[in-house]
Specification:
By secondary structure, this protein is α/β, with parallel strands linked by helices. Helices cover 28% and strands 24% of the residues. The radius of gyration is 22 Å and the shape is globular. Keywords: FAD, Flavoprotein, Signal.
Length: 423
C-alpha cells in the first residue's frame, strides 16, 4: 500500500513535539480509563508532547489484560503474566489518580471523582471500556456470574481465576458450556480462542470431557482457521452451535447450571461460561455520549464525540464502524485522538487518520493464527472504511511451522503493546 502525501504529513504531525501552553499554565489532557486505550493515550501524550500536562484516572492500581487471559484459563499462563502497574507512566510524568470517574460536565470541562475531587481539563480522552448488560439474558445478573462466570471484564482477575478453578474441579467426562453473544462485543475472536484454550486444558487433564459452544451468531472471526485447528488438535471434543441451529442463549438457571436457548432447548452443563451482551461503560452512558445502540458515536478522524465537543472516546466504548473492538485498535485510535486533541489546542487541522489492527489468537499453546486490517476515514470524513486490499488472515492448511511461528509472534505482540502502553 502506498501512502498519500496527506498521510505522510499526518504521520509527521504525530511525531511533532510542539509547545503547548495556556494562559493559566500547561494545557491539560485528562485521560479516563487505564486500559489499552487510556494507558496508550497517556504514554503517547507524554512521549510526543512533553509540554502537555497529562493526568490519568483509573480506579485499579494494577491492570489485568483481556489478551492472554484465555491462556490463564487454559493453565499455560499465570495471573502475574497479564498484570501490569502504572509506575512506568508516573516515571514519564503522568499524574496517575486511582479513583473512579463518576461524572462528566462537558460544558464546564470537568470530571468528578468518587473521592470528591474534581479535575478540570482542556481536552478529555475517555476510554472507559465496556459494561456487561446484566439481565439481557434472563436469569443472568451479577450474582449469577459468581456461579456462571463471564471472565470478560478482568477487574482484579477474580472471574478469570474462578473459571479456571471450576475447570480444575470438574470431573473428567464433564461438559463445559459457553454462551457467546451477538455482535458487537469486545474482542470478536476472544470466545473462540477461549474454546481452544479450554480444549487444550481438557486434552491434557480431562480428555473424556466435551465443550458445547452456543452462539448468538451464524459466523465468527477467523472461523475457518479456528475450526481447522479444532479438528486437528481436539477432534470430537468441541460442538459449536450457531444461531440458525438454536444456538442463541436467552435464559440461564444459575443454580442448576442450565443454558436455555430461544426455542426452549435446555442444556445442563458442569461448567458454564456466560459472555453476555455488552455496551459502553456506565460513565459514557450517563454522560449522554451514547446512542440507542449503547455505544458512543465519534468523528472518524478525531475520535471526538458526536454530541460533546472536547471529549474523544476511544477503545471499546465507541462505534468504530468496521473496526473490531480490539486492544490494537484501542491503542491505534488513542494515539490519533491525542494528536487530534493537540491539534485542536493549537488551532490546527487534525492529522490524517490511519488505524491499524493486528489480532493473534492461540488455538493451542504452540498454535497461533492471526488477522490484520488497516482502516481510515472515507473521502467525505463521515465514516471509517477498510483500506482496500489491506486486510488478511493466516493461510489455511497443514502448516505446523507457520502455526508455531504465529504463536511466537503473538507473544512478541503482547510484550510490545504492553510496553508501549505502560511506558
Amino acid at each position: 500500500m502506498t501512502l498519500s502525501r496527506g498521510a505522510l504529513l499526518g504521520a509527521a504531525a504525530l511525531l511533532a513535539t510542539p509547545s503547548l501552553s495556556r494562559a493559566q499554565g500547561q494545557a491539560r489532557l485528562l485521560v479516563v480509563g487505564g486500559g489499552f486505550g487510556g494507558a496508550s493515550a497517556a504514554a503517547f501524550a507524554r512521549r510526543r508532547y512533553p509540554d502537555l500536562a497529562v493526568t490519568l484516572v483509573e480506579p485499579k492500581t494494577r491492570f489485568v489484560t483481556c489478551p492472554y487471559g484465555n491462556l490463564v484459563i487454559g493453565g499455560v499462563r499465570q495471573m502475574g503474566d497479564i498484570t501490569h502497574g502504572y509506575d512506568g507512566l508516573r516515571a514519564r510524568g503522568v499524574r496517575v489518580v486511582h479513583d473512579w470517574a463518576t461524572g462528566i460536565d462537558a460544558a464546564a470541562k470537568r470530571v468528578r471523582l468518587g473521592g470528591g475531587e474534581t479535575l478540570a481539563y482542556d481536552r478529555l480522552i475517555l476510554s472507559p471500556g465496556i459494561a456487561l448488560r446484566w439481565g439481557a439474558i434472563e436469569g443472568y445478573d451479577e450474582a449469577a456470574s459468581e456461579r456462571l462466570p463471564h471472565a470478560w471484564v478482568p477487574g482484579d482477575g477474580a472471574q478469570t481465576l474462578l473459571l479456571r478453578r471450576q475447570l480444575e474441579e470438574m470431573p473428567d467426562g464433564g461438559v463445559v458450556g459457553l454462551a457467546i453473544p451477538g455482535n458487537p462485543f469486545r474482542c470478536p475472536p476472544g470466545p473462540y480462542e477461549r474454546i481452544s484454550m479450554i480444549a487444550a486444558y481438557l486434552k491434557r487433564h480431562k480428555p473424556r470431557s466435551k465443550i458445547l459452544a452456543l452462539d448468538a451468531k451464524d459466523a465468527f472471526s477467523k472461523q475457518g482457521l479456528f475450526q481447522d485447528g479444532w479438528n486437528a488438535l481436539y477432534p470430537g471434543m468441541i460442538e459449536w452451535v450457531p444461531a440458525n441451529r438454536d444456538g442463541r442463549v436467552t435464559r440461564v438457571d444459575a443454580a442448576e447450571r442450565v443454558l436455555e436457548t430461544e426455542f426452549g432447548t435446555r442444556h445442563k452443563v458442569d461448567v458454564a461460561n456466560v459472555i453476555p451482551p455488552q455496551s459502553a461503560a456506565r460513565i459514557a452512558i450517563e454522560a449522554g455520549l451514547t446512542d440507542q445502540s449503547g455505544w458512543a458515536p465519534v468523528n472518524p478522524v478525531t475520535l471526538e464525540s458526536r454530541v460533546a465537543p472536547g471529549i474523544h472516546v476511544v477503545g471499546d466504548a465507541n462505534i468504530p464502524g468496521p473496526m473490531p473492538k480490539s486492544g490494537y485498535i484501542a491503542n491505534s485510535t488513542a494515539k490519533q485522538a491525542v494528536a487530534s486533541a493537540v491539534a485542536s489546542l493549537r488551532g490546527e487541522a487534525p492529522p490524517q487518520a490511519l488505524y491499524y489492527n493486528t489480532c493473534y489468537s492461540h488455538v493451542g499453546e504452540d498454535y497461533g493464527i492471526s488477522i490484520v486490517g488497516i482502516f481510515r476515514p472515507n473521502a467525505e470524513g463521515t465514516a471509517i472504511v477498510e483500506v482496500p486490499n489491506s486486510g488478511g488472515v493466516s493461510p489455511r492448511g497443514d502448516l505446523p511451522e507457520q502455526r508455531r511461528l504465529e504463536a511466537t509472534y503473538a507473544d512478541s505482540w503482547y510484550e510490545s503493546i504492553t510496553k508501549d502502553m505502560f511506558a
